[in-house]
Design goal:
The protein is mainly beta. It has 2 domains: 13-97 and 113-287, Jelly Rolls (Sandwich); 290-436, Jelly Rolls. 6% of the residues lie in helices and 34% in strands. The chain has helices spanning 84-91, 384-391, 419-424, 432-436; strands at 13-15, 22-25, 46-51, 64-69, 80-81, 105-107, 122-130, 135-144, 151-155, 159-166, 169-173, 176-180, 184-188, 194-197, 203-210, 235-237, 251-257, 260-266, 273-278, 283-286, 307-312, 319-326, 329-331, 348-355, 371-374, 398-400, 405-411, 416-417. The strands form 7 sheets. A 7-stranded antiparallel β-sheet has the order 20-13-10-15-8-7-28. A 6-stranded antiparallel β-sheet has the order 6-25-24-27-22-21, with no helix packed on it. A hairpin with a 2-residue loop joins strand 11 and strand 12.
């Protein structure tokens, strides 16, 4: 797939390089020179530091940003818990409310919900761990049809990796704006405040919230210094602020805190950062820029070669969350069964489909806006039609996935399914297993049998 050719480029961002130090100002002279917190900041601004890692984290891991804003982020009233009946069942990952089951699961396409905005359209599907201990992840679906008003939202629990399936998200963050469309992704780091408006109408998509650390590019090892997602293709926001002097309005600030929703009121805009510098900021990436690699002889490598971003655990090479995509690509292997092999592994695999058909599921049950979950050691692989087709295909160079984009949130953790995901949403395909693998035919002819 070539670089995505959107009819209207994103006017809010520029190519910056993944994790690079970045500085930007919307008013000339707003950034201090030579120090971070002068006695008096230019233009009467306040200096405020945002630390995404511990102060004493190693230099190569340390993430922080200095912001220069009209009023500090602390200038708000007390937070109060929102109505638990409305939000708790959608967002909770309390261990006793998650269903840990070995069954293979697949969901029909999730519904739109034109009655709610971003905050009220978040639904937890699956998760593992505990955000209070900064361990694990949450997998959410979003569906919304209304703009957020005089509001802002942030998650204290983890980084949001947002994967749009339908519709554009105009995300106004404290540090600038990002326009995100299907076949693009965005990451909003823990604690960054933002609001979402919908320039093209209703939206739907997927989120992987990383409670532990932050997303980073995977190491390339023997691949070398290029391919997969290249650092230069990531885009950062340009400083942008609202000035509500003379027309103050009441704003509502939502906080996702231990998977419970709180809100506080303030009498000024949350989006008043005039300038900032640092390496802790939201960013976006066009999946069409992913440089796929693969086998050019026989067999095929592990799907880790499709990793865009990873959230590493404390054990090297083992991820809390990997974001993996399956874009259009050429298959050229000789004498090889080309779709993914049948497998069981120690990882949990949550798959979604942005568009098109996934080449390992040709039976029709895996559709855009749907999903599947193959938990720890749950056996899975191609359905019968994919197996029969690949086993008998002429092995010439073939391009697969034209017009398609499937992805996977892969985790080393056992993932529990929420009550909403298993029952309330009413999208689970009850006969997924029977339709996919029970029909597989026996081909073995025992040469020792007389």
């Amino acid at each position: 797939m070539p670089v995505t050719n959107f009819p209207h480029p994103d006017p809010y961002t520029y190519q910056n390089g993944f994790g690079s130090y970045h500085e930007t100002e919307a008013v000339e002279g707003a950034l201090p020179v030579g120090q971070n917190s002068p006695q008096k900041v230019a233009h009467g601004l306040y200096a405020e530091k945002m630390s995404g890692t511990a102060f004493t984290a190693p230099r190569h891991e340390n993430q922080q940003t200095w912001a220069y804003r009209i009023l500090p982020a602390a200038a708000h009233e007390n937070f109060y818990a929102e109505d638990a009946d409305s939000y708790h069942t959608r967002m909770t990952t309390e261990t006793h409310k998650l269903h840990h089951i070995p069954n293979q699961l697949r969901w029909n396409p999730f519904d739109f919900d034109e009655k709610v905005d971003w905050v009220h359209g978040l639904h937890l599907v699956a998760g593992s761990g505990d955000p209070t201990m900064k361990q694990g992840l949450g997998i959410l679906l979003y569906a919304a049809g209304k703009d957020m008003g005089n509001e802002a939202f942030y998650s204290a629990d983890g980084d949001f990796l947002i994967v749009p399936q339908h519709g554009a998200l105009d995300i106004q963050t404290e540090l600038g704006r990002i326009l995100v469309r299907p076949n693009e992704i965005a990451v909003i780091p823990r604690g960054i405040r933002y609001r979402v408006t919908l320039p093209d109408g209703p939206v739907r998509g997927y989120i992987c919230e990383l409670y532990q650390g932050h997303y980073q590019l995977p190491e390339l090892g023997p691949i070398g210094s290029n391919c997969l997602a290249n650092a230069r293709d990531f885009q950062a926001p340009i400083a942008h602020f609202d000035d509500d002097e003379g027309k103050p309005a009441e704003y509502k600030l939502f906080s996702k805190f231990n998977n419970t929703l709180f809100s506080a009121r303030q009498n000024h805009t949350p989006f008043d950062i005039v300038a900032w510098h640092g390496n802790y900021y939201p960013y976006k990436y066009d999946l069409g820029r992913f440089n796929v690699i693969g086998s050019i002889s026989f067999d095929h490598p592990d799907p880790s070669i499709f990793t865009v971003l990873t959230g590493p655990s404390d054990h090297v090479g083992t991820a809390v969350a990997d974001f993996v995509i399956f874009p259009p690509r050429w298959l050229v292997q000789e004498n090889t069964f080309r779709p993914p092999w049948y497998h069981r592994n120690t990882m949990s695999e949550f798959m979604g489909l942005i568009a098109g058909d996934y080449d390992a599921k040709t039976g029709g049950g895996f559709r855009p806006a749907g999903a599947s979950l193959h938990n720890v050691w749950s056996a899975h692989g191609p359905d019968m039609s994919a197996f029969e087709g690949a086993s008998n295909a002429e092995l010439k160079p073939t391009k697969v996935g034209d017009g398609s984009m499937a992805f996977m949130f892969e985790s080393s953790l056992m993932v529990g399914v929420s009550e909403w995901g298993l029952k309330t949403c009413e999208k689970v395909q009850e006969e997924y297993n029977e339709h996919s693998w029970t029909p597989l035919k026996r081909h073995f002819v025992n040469p020792n049998k007389k």
